[in-house]
Specification:
The chain is globular and about 50 Å long. The relative contact order is 0.15. The protein has a 7-stranded parallel beta sheet, with helices on both faces. It has helices at 18-29, 41-54, 70-84, 107-135, 147-150, 157-176, 194-197, 201-209, 219-230; strands spanning 9-12, 33-37, 60-63, 89-92, 138-143, 181-188, 241-244. The N and C termini lie far apart (37 Å). The chain has one domain (9-241): Rossmann fold. It contains 9 helices and 7 strands; from the N terminus they run E-H-E-H-E-H-E-H-E-H-H-E-H-H-H-E. By secondary structure, the protein is α/β, with parallel strands linked by helices. Helix 1 packs across helix 9 (219-230), helix 3 packs parallel to helix 4 (107-135) and helix 4 (107-135) packs parallel to helix 6 (157-176). Bound molecules: nicotinamide-adenine-dinucleotide (NAD). Nicotinamide-adenine-dinucleotide is lined by residues 14, 16-20, 38-39, 43, 67, 93-96, 116, 143, 145, 188, 190-191, 193-196.
Amino acid sequence: MMKLLKGKVAMVTGGTRGIGLATVRTFLENGASVVLCGSKPQTAEKAVQTLKAENPEYDVCGISPNLSNYQEIENAIKDIVQKYGKLDIVVNNAGISCSDKIYNYKPEDFDKIIKLNVNASFYTSRAVAPFMKEQGGGVILNTSSMVSVYGQPSGVGYPTSKFAINGMTKSLARELAKDNIRVNAVAPGVTDTDMVSALPAQLRERITSSIPLGRIGTPQDIANAFLFLASDLASYITGVVLQVDGCAMT
Ligand code: NAD
């Protein structure tokens, strides 16, 4: 198998389960060294152990910076650059959702979603961009969602955060292109992870029945898109929000 990320160093937030874990595994299979971020040291370590049990050769380690704290992210990125000599790829994948109706929506839940889904992606981009510029280039990948195209009929904070991610992706792509830093996003459709099993069954069924490809996505479907965009196969692609959603139109 051709290893698309041979010699690359990557950091993946929310790498302990779901789409993030599948992305970490796919990057490792493709020859990258990967630092995965979890919200707790125990979950990060557990994911590392799972991967090492699959293949002891994998170069993977786990960290758990507080993604709401810029200084912790900057320190984590400095540590990675010090350890590996560079950081080629950052995948901003950690995200949370809340599907409450506006009448019950707690303002603090809105704040939490924006803090993790939007601010943390800005923080990692802000912290890594100078290093990527210095080393001659890099790739920043964000996680959007199909709801960034259509919105959704409840849970307004989540689509708001993903529309913001699209704006950040396109703007940073324009700003950082001259430094050979590509910035793209993947917009998953309904994907079979904990986040989706937490959705009300009615909403999940309604969304699923409208998918032309006739199934919900797998974490691997999304990881494959991240792999492509992270690799040199996508060397002339920046500022794109790649929908990976079976042509869903909900
Ligand atoms: P998940 O709930 O299975 O995993 C979320 C990850 O984020 C976990 O690794 C978790 O540790 C991390 N995380 C959560 N809160 C955190 C915090 N406060 N600090 C640090 N890390 C935290 O989610 P998933 O379904 O794999 O989703 C991953 C990304 O894909 C998210 O950005 C999500 O919005 C997006 N997405 C998912 C779907 C879907 O259908 N599953 C669809 C569209 C977009």
